[in-house]
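Need residues for this backbone.
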């Protein structure tokens, strides 16, 4: 692949473009933010004055934009698609509604261009480290054409279907799984006495490792158990000591004066004997 047009150099896009440059791709980028294009230029990329200029003779157009409406405007109203080389592949990496992606891909493919729906997860941290999870959907030929570029930006690249929109469906499923895992994690954290800190830690862990995966869940549970075991044990011992002391006092209460005296001594000295505080 000789040239890639990268449109959308935001918080994630600029790092993704930089990773492509570091892997030897010829990246021409465009963004409305002067700081974003300066970053690309310092990373070794070429800066274009418009989306159409960036896409001139490009074999792939990577769109890391806000939504599908913005992607459609760039491709058609701004002339990026028309400027690209014949048979170029549009790679939509923004997270968009599946039905919207299907309509946009049909319009692009009707003009003889390829289309790959490739939403990502991993956030800015994943974009910087080239460790994004990329769920791509599109015809096998189009996917094969952009796969080397996708692998330069992510550590997990999955072809989840032959029809654009299926990647967006998978992204929705993963987001739902993360929300479910987070809710389950919050409830579990409260039951185990971890409070808000444990809840936040679980949410961070799931988001970083792919959201709702079994290995992340097991790792998190082991970590929490290891961290909070001593606290739970101390709390259990304190409660147990109070029950034992209270129980002993109730058994002795009301028998004789000597029994009452013994009960008072028992209550006063009992906690020290068992090391309670």
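Answer:
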């Amino acid at each position: 692949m000789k040239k890639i047009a990268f449109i959308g150099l935001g918080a994630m896009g600029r790092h993704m473009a930089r990773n492509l440059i570091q892997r030897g791709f010829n990246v021409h980028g465009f963004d409305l933010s002067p700081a974003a294009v300066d970053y690309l230029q310092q990373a070794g990329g070429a800066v274009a004055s418009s989306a159409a200029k960036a896409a001139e003779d490009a074999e792939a157009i990577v769109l890391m934009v806000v939504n599908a409406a913005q992607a459609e405007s760039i491709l058609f109203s701004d002339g990026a698609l028309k400027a690209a080389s014949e048979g170029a592949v549009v790679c939509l990496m923004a997270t968009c509604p599946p039905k919207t992606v299907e309509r946009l891909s049909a319009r692009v493919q009707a003009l003889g261009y390829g289309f790959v729906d490739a939403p990502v997860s991993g956030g800015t941290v994943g974009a910087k480290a080239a460790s994004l999870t990329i769920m791509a959907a599109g015809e096998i030929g189009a996917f094969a054409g952009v796969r080397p570029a996708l692998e330069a930006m992510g550590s997990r690249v999955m072809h989840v279907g032959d029809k654009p929109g299926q990647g967006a469906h998978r992204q929705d499923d993963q987001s739902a799984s993360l929300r479910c895992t987070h809710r389950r994690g919050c409830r579990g954290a409260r039951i185990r006495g971890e409070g808000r800190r444990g809840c936040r830690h679980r949410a961070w862990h799931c988001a970083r490792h792919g959201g709702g995966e079994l290995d992340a869940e097991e790792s998190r549970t082991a970590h929490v158990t290891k961290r909070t075991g001593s606290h739970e044990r101390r709390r259990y011992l304190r409660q147990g000591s109070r029950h034992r002391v209270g129980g002993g006092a109730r058994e002795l209460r009301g028998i004789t004066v000597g029994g009452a005296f013994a009960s008072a001594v028992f209550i006063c000295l009992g906690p020290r004997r068992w090391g309670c505080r």
